[in-house]
Predict the structure.
Amino acid sequence: MTKELEHSFVSELEKNQNIVHKVCSLYTNNRDAHNDLFQEITIQLWKAYPKFRGDSKFSTWMYRVALNTAITLYRKSKKRIKTQDYDAVIFKIKTDEYDETQEQQLKLMYKAVKQLNDIEKALVFLYLEDKDYSDIADTLGITEVNARVKMNRIKKKLRTIINP
Amino acid sequence: MMDELELLKKDWQQRGATAPKLTYDEICKMLWKKSSSVVKWIFLISLIEFILPHLLYLVPSLREGTEIYANLGIKNAMLGLTIFQYAIAFYFIYEFYKRYKEISALDNAKNLMFRIIKTRKTVKKYVIISLSVFFFTFIVFAIGVYMTDDISSVMNTENIRDFSEGRLKLIFGTVIIAAGIIITCIMGLIYFLLYGFLLRKLGRNYSELKRLEV
């Protein structure tokens, strides 16, 4: 029984691991921390998996557990190396046609997003993942109106970070 | 700005292909690794808080104290305090377990944080009551010293006979109360620093979410 459960869980996670990697890249600054957070999210997902009844999509359920782990449950590990160029590695920008201004713009945007606080990052993350405001509100436990208001404030904040 | 955010969104969604990819086996190995979540830490620290004071009774030199209690005439008071200590410990273990069970990573972020904070508050109450009882033990001890007529023989102080009974009582009483204050404060400080450090991030994020609701 456990073997079956394990197999279905790992296969699903393997397919959807992108979501977890994106959360990790948003909340950590180097590869060690990224892997550490990935592992913690995996453990939390696995612990919660028996309660996942399949009434929502596996990926939907993953967003919630992954963000909860990053914002609330995760304790940073002690072994941390500060690597400045990590951003460049993880946020390797790939555009179809090479466009220098666009790439520059994107780099600035990613840098600005990384400067937001944990809650703001969660909102931006769900927004970038194309979640609607009722989903965002539901995941964070706030009202839809407040989610919209906050998102507008974040957009303003990002603007000031980019154009100080 | 809107354009930039839309550009970011497009790029973000395309980024899937460039993200690192773990294999089935690599993920499998992770399942059985130890979690380092705050909830686990709260659980472990609380467990130590519940068990440690009761383990102290196993130390032989502390058990000898019972004889002194009897001589000071505070045996019953001390017994009462011990029973009270156990009663509150069991009550709080039950409360703690109930709240701990309610914590679920499937909850929304705000509820999850709220439940963790609630669980921590249970431990906090326990620690405050425990420390009070602990300090009260010292007071009872001091009162016992004050009420005893032949303090020098009870406390084995034949070699400092030069002091008068009154003086001895005063010295013992002061030392006991001072020790009580110092030990209680140190224990309290360790506890609050530990939790403050452990839940700093959680507290910050919770107040940020709560601020959104105003």
Chain B touches chain A through 53 residues (CB under 8 Å).
